[in-house]
Amino acid sequence: MTVSHRAELWLGRLLCVAAAVLWSSAGLFIKRLTDPAGAAWSGWQVAGMRSLIAGITLLALARLFGRPANDAPAAPPARAALLDHRNWVLGLVYGPTLLTYVLAQTYTTTANAIFLQYTAPLYILFLSAWLLRERPGIGDYLTLPALLAGIILILSAELTFREGAFGNVMALISGVGYAFVILLLRKWRDGSPLAGIAAGNFLLAAVGIGVACAGPQGLVRPDAAAWTQIAWLGVFQIGLAYFLFQAALKRITAVEAALLTLIEPVLCPLWAWLFADDRPPSGSLIGGAIILGGLIVHTLWKAQMEKRDTGS
Length: 312
What we know:
globular; mainly alpha; single chain; 14 helices
């Protein structure tokens, strides 16, 4: 392993963490948009409008920067990307993943939806060797249980499986879908995956806006504050985040990317504490410390292995 390769790996890790930081801002803005005393949007309107803006953002980013990393061939033009079957497959996986997560948030607790979606690294751990020929190391297997235990502690106050069976099933499906999105982004990293992610967002936009229009309150007319919040969610929390994430997956393995994104549930209660004066319970703080500690140890272990491979 060369020094330049190690630098690319660290860049991939930083891009992945940056994507997770952006993803973690969702709860804060969605809560404000759906607050009856605020914008009072339905969850479907938020999901649909966010995905519409995200799809447009991703297409713009693909046009400006959508080139593969390193020495891979240049990204195909828009027509070629549209005809590439890989983008259609990715869109058909990503779109239902978003949709089932919205249904999970609707029909079970937020804690259940988050925890069950974040079982994705478990599936990736066992599928990456088969689909990607990337065999996880012993450190990957040892790290994941600790991280999942941290998530359970963060969500322990709300986590329950005694009710909301339909929502729990949707969350499980969302977790499987999320795993396959990561695996496909890694497998087809030399293509133009942003078009596929954009297609999935447009699919959810059509469903979300359609359901919102058919609902009892219809589409709520946004004010300036609501436009700012939904623009953040579409442009940055989804659009830019997935742009950074697919760039990260050009450099690091699917397993490492999946583990690093577990920083998202650590940051969600932190933002609520800082910006909504919603102090997290002690279980969330302990769980967050376990996840952060596990990720630091895992990353340092990987870096040590890489340093040994370079002989430096």
